[in-house]
Amino acid sequence: MKLWRVASLSLLVFALVGAGCSSKNDEALEKGVALESEVAHAASKSGRLLIVGGALRSDNKDVYRAFTESIPPQLPNVAIVPAASGRPAHYAQQFAEDLRHFGFAGDIRVLPIAVKDDASTESVDESLWRGGGRDAAVAEELADVGGIWFVGGDQTRITGTLLGPDGEDGPVLAAIRTQLSRGAVVGGTSAGAAIMSETMIAAGDSLSALTLPSVAVYAGMDSQESGQLMLARGLGFLPFGVVDQHFDRKARLGRLIRALGFSSEASSKVGYGVDEDTALLVNLDAKSMKVLGAGNLVVVDGRAAQFAAAESVFAAKGLRLSVLSAGDTLAWETGEVMIAGSETPGQEAFGYHAAQGAGIALANQRLDHLLGFSLLDNREVRELRRYAFSDETGQGVLFQFQQTEQSRGFWRYGSGTKDQYSVVDVALDVVPVAVTVTPTSS
């Protein structure tokens, strides 16, 4: 098996072209969630992050061991922040049990920071913990903690309890940053992943994000499944890029692309989509990240892209997309990736006319399969077209994937005879379309 170094991920060389949208709603969005507020979160240059895309299985040893092995010996304990969950005690206890299963022997503390009461704890009303993030005594509990974990749920509950009214760090968040700078690991799943970047995706599904205006008012957790795009202030532990999670199962490529168009900062025009039961182990010292677990990391670079000026009809041209799989690493400052496997262009395994279009009847629905099997390991195809649209409104988009001279594909066996693909630097345009569906009579 060969190890390839590729420096063409386009994370460094592109200049900023598009400045996003300019509607009144955008202005309200920027003011309402303070995406570029005067409150600056000083990003740590040391420590590690473990960013999990949600639905983390209790038997995912690679991810759990990455967390426990990243805990510095001089900071031997773990603190769990359950604020995001509607069942804070239950999910904190579940994570603690998983850590014990993988041999963690240090102290595990559940910080009293929550918004919802957990019905499984009759003697405690966790909804009374709303002020825990502003409690100096709770912050002091972190002095010997080398692992901080955010459970999943609603990411706005985390930011709402840890950030002050003007976006400033509360005492607990300030203490977490201190521990991170001392070499601790800060991890989280689902909502605990969404908070990691400075710009946080708070709500929205892909089709709504691409065909409807964004919003500045949070409509509740259901709007994360079906609703218009909303961006908010995250905690900024990751100094580069925007994080999205549940990426494969919830088809969130569209909303991540849409989110990139709002920022004028180059660091917020690169997106990281993390699949379920998958993690990024981020080394802040080395400015690198490694993919762990069952799924993929999707990297979308929008820094050289042109975005439509009007939000009512979204379009993007010149995006670059990469899909990294377990074991791959990315250095975000240099753009270099390290991938084990054989290059596919020039020695493709397939030669067939892949179907263009949309729908559940088309093969290779996952991005790694679509761009691996159907594009970069297929000598007959240089472009793939996939459509997404609403049959109620007819509004939709065309995703146009193109293999260029800079594109690279890699294949290797994953587990057993599982085909594992990684792809680097595929060109992507998003084009608005109008679709009419007319049933044919039998």
If you had to describe this structure to a student in words, what would you say it looks like?
The protein has 442 residues and is α+β, with helices and mostly antiparallel strands. It has helices at residues 24-33, 61-69, 88-101, 136-140, 155-162, 171-181, 191-194, 206-211, 253-260, 367-376, and strands at 3-6, 48-52, 77-81, 108-110, 145-150, 185-189, 199-203, 230-233, 242-244, 270-274, 278-283, 288-293, 296-301, 306-307, 316-325, 329-331, 337-340, 342-343, 383-389, 395-402, 408-413, 419-434. Strands 1-17-16-12-11-2-6-5-3-4 form a 10-stranded mixed sheet. Strands 9, 10, 13, 14, 15, 18, 19, 20, 21 and 22 form a 10-stranded mixed sheet that branches. A two-stranded antiparallel ribbon has the order 7-8. α9 links the parallel β9 (242-244) and β10 (270-274). The protein is globular, with a radius of gyration of 22 Å. Mean pLDDT is 91; it is low at 7-38.
